[in-house]
Fold:
Amino acid sequence: MTAPLIEARALVRVYHSRQGLFGAARALRAVDGVSLAIAPGETLGLVGESGSGKSTTGRMVLGLEPPDAGSVHFAGEPLPPPGTPPWRALRARVQMIFQDPLGALDRRLTIADQIAEPLEIHRRGDQPARAERVRELMRQVGLSADHGARYPHELSGGQRQRAVLARALATAPEFLVCDEPVSALDVSIQAQVVNLLIDLQASLKLAMLFISHDLRVVRQVSARVAVMYLGRIVELGDADDLFATPAHPYTRALVSASPAPGRRSATRIVLAGDPPDPAARPSGCAFHPRCAHALPRCRGETPVLVNVAPGRSAACHLVTPAHAPIDAAA
Amino acid sequence: MAALVALKDLGVAFNGVTVLHGVDLQIARGEAIGVVGESGSGKSVTFLAALGLLPRSARVTGAVELDGANILGAPDAVLDRVRGRRVAMIFQDPASALNPVLTIRRQIGESLARHRGLTGQAIEREARRLLDLVGIADAPRRLSAYPHEFSGGQNQRIMIAMALAGSPDLLIADEPTTALDATIQAQILELIGRVRRETGMALVLISHDLGVVAENCERVAVMYAGRIVEEAPAAAVFAQPLHPYTEGLIGALPPIDGPRRRLTAIAGTVPDPKDMPSECAFAPRCNHAGPRCGAIPPLRAIAGARRLACVRHHEALPFIEAAE
Amino acid sequence: MLRYFAIRFARALITIALVVTFAFVVLRLSGDPALIIMGPEAPPEVIAAFRKAWGLDEPIWRQYIDYFGAIARGELGRSMRDGRPAIALVAERIPATLALTLPALLIKLCLGVPAGMYAALHRGSLIDRAVMVAAVAGFTVPSFVLGLTLVLIFAVQLGWLPSGGQDTWRHAILPIVTLGIGGAAVLARFTRSAMLEVLGQPYIRTASAKGIPWRAVVTGHALPNAAIPTVTIIGFMVGTLIAGAVVVESVFSWPGVGRLLVVAVANRDLAVVQCILLLVAATMVASNLTVDFLYGLLDPRLRGARAH
Structure:
């Protein structure tokens, strides 16, 4: 495998929150030992529900939040500390798009101005060159020239997300983190934006970290997928493979919960219980209270992410082969 | 057999702008019907109008028959006896759909007192039974709690418990799982299914997700720009979608298994209700649009207990003259 | 719980101290009490003696420390005009002020809150618009303009009511109305927007969908939520019970605390001014604390931990 563009090792992020008005401070391990690697031009999907820590992981990988432990390397170099000039210069190479395009756009600037902003900040080209680049970007994302003169509230949800995408691509970054970019869009618009992302990735050789709770969309765009639960990666592998034959019981439940036309509800796996509170983590395997196959071992011992098949790792006592080498970033 | 609820030519306009154009739909006793549509389809407005829950500025026309009697425009006293008691409705985002300053006991007990005439200890007992039914553990303590103390999934269960308090004949679930995680979504849908099996309650499941609707309903109605454009048994809609919009919606769903394929991206966007064309509302975005699409196609019954509003298919398939 | 209130209480004390400090500094820097009280023609020795008697010849920081020391002992100073204890002077005026502000508060509540609620429940109707126009008029017109206008109409033109002084109960009517109208307008507007905000919430629709009659939805579901922001502003109004009538008392020559304050400031009667300000600050702070406490009662979300 080629050298990874992004490599994260054992990331940890702990938040301290206060309970109510008078409670004691609690430590919340949002991310608890996550390692991943993304090759240039590859998409890694990151799936999980609320409390899984996927958004926090995305921000740490980008350098927006410093990890409390672990490290992130971009193109072989460790990430510079946030706020420093090298960190700012790195913004031209790594970008992020979010769930709410209206919130990500400045209400008072035209679309064209906003797309041009990164070029101004990083001082790319002169005025005419920038204008040309903006036109080219808008063409690439499927916006017409007169969209450039409009304001965000005058555009539809799908068009706004395209504008956000154009802005993110302005400095020709090598790595794009997408945090739930299509969740707020209608199904037909989702399809448009997903197709666009796939096309852009192929033509621009973008590496992507695609974060979502919707398995179907993640499968569509990703080469590999990591499934997160309560701050840890519980399964990692090739996208098609993982969804066709999930190993970890949580992944199986997720796949089964994903609505698919034609499948009858009798075969659906329904998990008992509620998603756990990240501040009150169960002992041993965090998933064991909801797992139909939990062993006594699962309550006491936290499983480690190990290779269970070629190209697949899982963190589960039930699927770990007897003597498996520890491989945290397959 | 007479339908439990029949919507007849139901139309809604806000400030002179029509958002719902004459919807006809029948719901039989015990049946589960899914209503699918994207923004601007009118899927929620239809049922809010049917129950008289739209603001006063809305103009609602047509008829809504419950067991044959029209309740549209009925006085509040009549509607208050229907809502919660014959027809219950649950909404999206349960956290904000529950009153934050009232206890769960108060919110469930209200319905029990009003629709079943229970008082005192009887309310307490029944409220506990309902919470157990929907899978909330430790019911006695939970009744004294407030909505913010529960998770999203638990709040939706509480909403369902509240809805069941009146023993309704029909439950309208408006995007009940959209704001929830996938595994919790599965739990809620399974709960609704179980309750239906046990009580024989009918269900209208409104969603933008065809997959959710297909898995949980017997019949599916697809809505676009304020009209029903296709209606068919769930399996038939997926095996053989007839309306181009339905085809597009199915194609837009990424498959979870099987080979990957490029998603069908329906070009363009939903028309603004203010500028609704006099032609077929979907024509500007339709790959098969032709000269006959200049007029709005009526929703007609065709073979296989289906209905379709598209000229293209009307010659190819035999249609049935309306029997009512 | 204790910690919560201890912090709030400490902050309250600091607020009061800041208010008094501010008054202290400004008063002393803006004019010489000795000159003002003794008169400009008094001989310099008299003025010097006055200054010495009242400690005004000490450096400011010394006077400041002495003052706070005195407060700690419970001595709030004496009026420089007649030598009586400041606190006695103020205390004897309080009933007069309350005779205006308490009925006025009642008017504000009984007029403002229902008007605001009605406007919200009948949004867009003629009554809603009328209430809103009246409300805007009510709080943009300054109280002295309103007061003088009322005097013009009811005392001068119609001769129904007296224009000033405190002789009979009739004398209280115009000042109470002047005070009440302005506050009612503010309260109406506020209540209306609080109610509208609540009525737009999803849980109101849920309650209707349950078949609860509209009246019960408003009283049982909407009001408890709308009460929360409304309580803040009512608390503020309660906080101004002592100080809120300064202008009105002057317009109507009503011998209350407000009038006393105006006179004392003009005379640089330091102890009296400071005493009044201390009282006002304390009242305001106390009402804020009460509102904070009420919030905890009214809004369960503020009460604390999840019931896991």
Remarks:
- The two ends of chain B are 12 Å apart (CA to CA).
- Chain B has one domain: 5-86+168-314.
- Chain B touches chain C through 38 residues (CB under 8 Å).
- The domain at 5-86+168-314 of chain B is CATH 3.40.50.300 (Rossmann fold).
